[in-house]
Specification:
Layout: H1 21-25, H2 29-42, E1 50-56, E2 65-70, E3 75-81, H3 90-117, H4 123-151, H5 167-176
Parallel strand pairs: 1-3
Antiparallel strand pairs: 2-3
Helix pairs in contact: 2-3, 3-4
The structure holds zinc ion.
Length: 179
């Protein structure tokens, strides 16, 4: 089965402001989809997982990218900011978000361990979680850089975003709901 067949026929609706996506990212949504499929294969996410790409036009979506993961069904949705992204290289963002999927078992193990070790709402738990998410983000980005520089179409790293600590909780809000 070819990769294209398991993607929805048109996962990115044709309505404003998606038509501006080329101005924002320097590529059409079709090119973005092709790039996404390339990385889903390169990182060996397909065929074990079904992954799809979605553009987010909600201005409340502060991040450039995010990923939602359903372990039971082995499905993942990568979300990309279609309005005001903070990073210039969308390929780097795609690789970064998919790398979170590769790290997910380790991620969940560490979070479960921290939950078991510290009382809820305790400063110790907050500290452990913050430290864990910081190092997780660093590791994910390090791996993303390595793959991007080796296999990327666009190997220019984004420097437009300043990472802030407060984004880590938001980043994992969608993941914590999963058992
Ligand atoms: Zn991340």
């Amino acid at each position: 089965m070819k990769v294209k067949e398991w993607f929805p026929p048109d996962p990115l609706p044709r309505k404003p402001p998606y038509q501006d996506i080329e101005g924002i990212y320097g590529m059409s949504k079709e090119e973005m989809q092709t790039l996404f499929e390339k990385w889903v294969r390169k990182l060996r996410i397909y065929p074990a997982w079904d992954a799809r790409l979605e553009l987010v036009e909600d201005r409340e979506f502060r991040k450039t990218g995010d990923i939602k993961i359903d372990c039971d069904d082995r499905k993942a949705v990568v979300l990309l900011n279609a309005v005001n992204p903070k990073q210039e290289n969308i390929e780097e963002v795609i690789v970064h978000e998919l790398m979170h999927l590769k790290m997910y078992p380790l991620d969940q193990t560490a979070e479960t361990l921290i939950d078991a070790a510290f009382p809820e709402d305790s400063p110790a738990r907050d500290f452990a979680m913050t430290q864990f998410f910081t190092t997780l983000e660093q590791t994910v980005e390090e791996l993303a850089k390595c793959f991007l520089l080796e296999y990327g179409e666009n190997r220019e790293l984004s420097f437009g975003r300043c990472k802030t600590m407060k984004s880590f909780n938001d980043l994992f809000d969608g993941l914590k709901k999963l058992e």
